[in-house]
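SAMPLE LOG
Freezer: B-3
Tube label: C17
Construct: single chain, 464 aa
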Amino acid sequence: MVKILNGIKKNRMIRRVVLFFALALVISTQSSAQTKNVDKIVAILGENIVLNSDIDGQYAQYMAQGYKDNGDLKCQILESLLAQKMLQNQAKLDSLEISEQQVEDELNRRVKYFMAQIGSQEKLEQFIGKSILEFKDELREDVRSVIMAQNMQQEITRKVTVTPNEIKKFYEEIPRDSLPFFNKEVQVGVILKKPEISAKAKQEAKDKLEALRQRVAKGEDFSTLAILYSQDGSAKNGGELGFVGRGELVKAFEAVAFKLKPGELSSVVETEFGFHIVQLIERRGEQVNVRHILIKVNYDYNDILNAKRFLDSVYNLILTEKITFEDAALKFSDDESTKNNGGMMQNPQDGSTRIPSDQVDPAIFFQLDNMKVGEIAPPASFKTPSGEQEYRIIKFISKTEPHQANLKDDYQKIQQAALTSKQNKEVAKWFSKRRKETYIRINEEFQTCEKLQPWITESAKRAK
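STRUCTURE (predicted):
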């Protein structure tokens, strides 16, 4: 057993080292992409070019992630790059708008991925030899191009829909032995009620925090006060959170944290967790290290009791058929993610309302275990991850036992698969038409790639 564990650790270490080298290669190829004496053009599409370094960079990433090259991986990469450039061209012609926020969000996602692989922002900056801001600036145009291509593809398929007959035909054409197998799944409806916090309770929490803020402003040690009074898990560390990047904090807190100067103390900030004061310790590019003090707003007994009474009345309306569960969810539920969908919870993996039983919230799962399909349970209390007490009504809508995919139980999933298939065909038709209208030339080393044959236009063949 020890040898096996050591082997696993060694493989992980090797993969991590390979990933670092892949990252280095991606960065170096991007920064040298315009150096024609060490790089070469492998394909031309209209006025656009694809460089050998573009292919090598993506190839290294695939290898680092454990992909196997069966001899045509670079052909697939080149095909993907040509498709991307054709979509970008059309996006420019159609004047599709790309917001700076879209680009920034994707850049932040990529940077966070790289930092997670290498360990920290400091290590990443050390590894690439530049700041995160410089790194993002180098990636910005590539990311913008990728988003443009994605948006253009969405525009091509925007009007594509599937009829019930098309869904049935799609299903019937799948070989029986190729149908997927699904584990036990459930459909669950929820109506949620959060206690309403009184204005008095809010003001008391805010005043308590403001008093602490004044003490810090007059010279008392922030960390000591955090240990004594903060109601956050970071209290034991003097309120210090450690370095975090954009998107890792709740919005209101993040907006303040990234505006502070080192040592500066914020005013009182309200979030869904309560009230905070924040002090910036250090900023490194797109990461900040802050300390904070959290004072939660406490519900009093009447707030909680009123929430239960409210849901009791909703429950009685449903039982006496004065309102349907679905209408009650729309009208009364505080759960924004389900209220507009008849209260039905969604599977985060595919967006359907059928959820594998092992992915259901454990508290709900145990409640369902004592219910029959179609039953609506009376309001029950539960605690959120942050410790607040809330109430919800649960409806056990349906369940399916482990089974092979079929139209009766898996219509939504088959519908989505049929739609995706039809969208792919629409995109393929679009590419087929555009290829005939576009000059494309591919280097001889890629001429034998089967996947690339449709991309070699007649005009390009005559130009050889």
